[in-house]
Each structure stands twice: as C-alpha cells, then as structure tokens.
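Researcher: Sequence recovery benchmark, item below. Answer with residues only.
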C-alpha cells in the first residue's frame, strides 16, 4: 500500500475509533438481591437488601439515588472496604434518598436495605400480576447526568384479589382438563366475565363467576364422558352382535354340512 493511500485512510481509521469508543458499553455496577420478596400483601411491612459492587467502573465519584413506591420507608446504607470491613452505616427516611460515593473513601461495596409498607394496587391486570417498584437505583454524576441501572419490582395483592385470582385459575384448569368434544362455551363465557370483574376490582363477583365457570366446565366434561361411554358401549354392543352372527352362521353352516354328509351315506 503506498503512502498516499495510507494518508487518506488514516483520518477514517481515527474517526472509526472515535465512533467505537463513543458506543462502547459502560462498565455495569454489579447488583445482587438478598431477601427481597417475590410478592407481598398490601398493607404488610416488608424489607429486603441489595448489594452493589464494581462501583467505580464509570466514575470515581458519584451519587447513589434510591426511589421506591413503598410507604413509611427507611433506607439503610452500609458501606464496606475491599477487606469486607464496615466503614459506615447511615439511614434515610422517605421514598427517595441520595448517598455520595467516591473511590478515595475506600468504599468498594454497598449494602442497601429497604424497609416499608406495601402500597395499594393502582390497577389490576390478569395476564401479568400487579407489581410495585420496591427499589429503583440510579447513578447520578456530578453535573446532573444520571443512569438508572437497576429496578427491583415486587408483586402485590390483597386477600380478596388473591382469592379471585386463584378461583379464576381453577376455572381455567377445569376448562383445559375437559375432554375433547366437551361443550365449554358457557364456561368460557363465565370465565371471561370473571376476568373482567377481577380487572375492575370487583373480586367477590369475580369469585362467583369463576365458580360458575368451573362448575359449568365440570358439567360439560361429565356429559362428554357419559357420551363417550355410551358410544363405547354401543360400539362394543355392535361388535358383540357381529360376533354372535358370525358364530351363529358358522354353527349353522357346520350343521348343514353334517346333514348333507349323512344324506349322502
């Protein structure tokens, strides 16, 4: 390759390098959960912790911001050095907090504990369980730039909503278990109405409709099974009649042959 061509390519190589460096993925803060519940009842008190490591992959100094939908919240931030020794422990009240971190402080690990009361469900969906934000963690850089690097969600429910959801699940199972040929149209209609009632927050109606759907599905399944049994009995009866005709015909033929033989003698 001649020098003229190399000189033309050099700016392109530099530009490509700059583009790649601009889009290269930033080092991620490592987050692990400890004791965070998968689901919780509305109004109950819950707590859980997350541990942050690899804190300074992007910046040597930044602010940890935490936000939650829990009520009556207390955040506890405990920091450790590389040897695992505790360096500090500080608590914050409220649905959000800010805590400064810097490489110079010697902090290499943060344990964040969240404790609060499970909020009400704003809207109910059936395909996916209602959930709230247990903790949303954001890295805030000096100057205002921020990056939300982890959101922890927890399902929440009330006693009645869980009863309704379980009743709908039982009805769905009854419909799925019905044998082929069972007329489950009425059951499916009641099930759809139950899901609609659940989404509207009318849980007692949802429970009643789901029970109706399950009963209808079981009735349809029983009728289908009885019909199948009758069909099977008729089939077996037909086979028996055919066998009797075959056997009877065979006996008749055998006797007629015996009589013909006797006449010949």
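Model:
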């Amino acid at each position: 390759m001649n020098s003229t061509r190399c000189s033309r390519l050099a700016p392109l190589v530099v530009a490509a390098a700059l583009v790649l460096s601009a889009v290269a993925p930033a080092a991620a803060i490592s987050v692990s959960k400890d004791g965070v519940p998968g689901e919780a009842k509305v109004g109950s008190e819950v707590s859980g912790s997350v541990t942050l490591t690899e804190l300074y992959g992007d910046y040597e100094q930044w602010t940890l911001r935490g936000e939650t939908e829990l009520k009556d919240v207390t955040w506890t931030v405990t920091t450790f050095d590389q040897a695992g020794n505790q360096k500090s422990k500080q608590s914050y009240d409220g649905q959000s907090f800010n805590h400064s971190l810097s490489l110079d402080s010697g902090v290499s690990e943060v344990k964040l504990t969240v404790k609060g009361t499970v909020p009400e469900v704003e809207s109910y969906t059936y395909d996916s369980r209602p959930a709230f934000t247990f903790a949303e963690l954001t890295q805030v850089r000096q100057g205002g730039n921020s990056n939300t690097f982890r959101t922890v969600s927890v399902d929440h429910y009330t006693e009645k909503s869980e009863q309704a959801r379980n009743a709908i699940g039982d009805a769905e199972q009854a419909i799925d278990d019905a044998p082929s040929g069972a007329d489950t149209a009425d059951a499916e209609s009641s099930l759809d109405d139950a899901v609609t009632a659940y989404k509207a927050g009318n849980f007692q109606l949802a429970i009643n409709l789901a029970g109706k759907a399950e009963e209808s599905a079981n009735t349809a399944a029983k009728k289908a099974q009885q019909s199948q049994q009758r069909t099977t009995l008729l089939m077996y009866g037909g086979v028996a009649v055919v066998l009797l005709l075959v056997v009877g015909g065979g006996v008749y033929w055998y006797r007629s042959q015996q009589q013909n033989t006797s006449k010949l003698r």
